[in-house]
């Protein structure tokens, strides 16, 4: 029962903060340069990080921040819930996120996303989406933005393993930038398919940047997947499957 109450309190703050951001920040953001938009709109993500910890009794164990490179990179992380999409925005801003186009239609939230120049994909057209990721991803990296791509392509519940997609590794290899791997167990605290949050330790591991120059996307992807899955074996409370 206590988790239900905590979750209700959390969502009250969640939607109130979204409303305040929509009223105060969205009218200003279009008139700011891109870097300024990130700083302004990221205030909402910083609030959610703190509010989730306070309201839901979650403790953060985040290791490896010192490994985050200075320049642009392709961030690849396992995808379990909404929390990591928030954290990865504040971990290394500014970052361009590869996401499904439907998210841009959500009132307030989607309007803010549009202002941050994400790469929005139509999943009903996979061939076109892949070309879009490759061309726009390299272009965004060329402007100094990092690119966030979830190699699983969609949310995957804790304890489930899905085939990794190599589009992020292809983008990184073409642009000659490193891949920054990130592993976490956020879905155990913020279930992706259930609104009630769970207290406990939310663990994040940030790896050493994986160099791409002179390597094939398949080689890079294999290293990314091995590292993320190895970390998940250690930090997950839900057992990981050994094979896909």
UniProtKB/TrEMBL annotation:
<keyword id="KW-0812">Transmembrane</keyword>
<feature type="transmembrane region" description="Helical">
    <location>
        <begin position="12"/>
        <end position="32"/>
    </location>
</feature>
<feature type="domain" description="Phospholipid/glycerol acyltransferase">
    <location>
        <begin position="73"/>
        <end position="187"/>
    </location>
</feature>
<dbReference type="GO" id="GO:0006654">
    <property type="term" value="P:phosphatidic acid biosynthetic process"/>
</dbReference>
<protein>
    <submittedName>
        <fullName>1-acyl-sn-glycerol-3-phosphate acyltransferase</fullName>
    </submittedName>
</protein>
<keyword id="KW-1133">Transmembrane helix</keyword>
<dbReference type="Pfam" id="PF01553">
    <property type="entry name" value="Acyltransferase"/>
</dbReference>
<dbReference type="InterPro" id="IPR002123">
    <property type="entry name" value="Plipid/glycerol_acylTrfase"/>
</dbReference>
<keyword id="KW-0012">Acyltransferase</keyword>
<keyword id="KW-0808">Transferase</keyword>
<dbReference type="GO" id="GO:0003841">
    <property type="term" value="F:1-acylglycerol-3-phosphate O-acyltransferase activity"/>
</dbReference>
<comment type="pathway">
    <text>Lipid metabolism.</text>
</comment>
<keyword id="KW-0472">Membrane</keyword>
């Amino acid at each position: 029962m206590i988790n239900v109450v905590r979750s209700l309190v959390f969502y009250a703050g969640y939607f109130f903060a979204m409303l305040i951001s929509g009223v105060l920040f969205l009218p200003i953001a279009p008139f700011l340069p891109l870097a300024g938009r990130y700083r302004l709109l990221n205030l909402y993500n910083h609030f959610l990080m703190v509010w989730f910890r306070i309201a839901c009794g979650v403790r953060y164990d985040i290791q490896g921040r010192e490994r985050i490179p200075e320049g642009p990179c392709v961030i690849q992380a396992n995808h379990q819930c909404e929390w990591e999409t928030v954290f990865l925005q504040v971990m290394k801003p500014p970052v361009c996120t590869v996401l499904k186009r439907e998210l841009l239609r959500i009132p307030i939230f989607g309007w803010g996303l549009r202002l941050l120049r994400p790469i929005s994909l139509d999943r009903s057209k996979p061939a076109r989406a892949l070309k879009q990721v490759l061309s726009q991803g390299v272009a965004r990296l060329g402007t100094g933005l990092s690119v966030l791509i979830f190699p699983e392509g969609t949310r995957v519940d804790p304890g489930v393993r899905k085939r990794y997609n190599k589009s992020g590794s292809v983008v990184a290899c073409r642009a000659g930038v490193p891949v920054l791997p990130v592993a976490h167990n956020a879905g155990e605290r913020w279930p992706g398919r259930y609104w009630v949050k769970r207290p406990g330790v939310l663990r994040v591991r940030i790896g050493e940047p994986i160099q791409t120059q002179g390597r094939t996307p398949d080689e890079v992807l294999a290293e990314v997947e091995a590292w993320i899955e190895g970390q998940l074996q250690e930090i997950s409370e839900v057992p990981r499957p050994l094979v896909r």
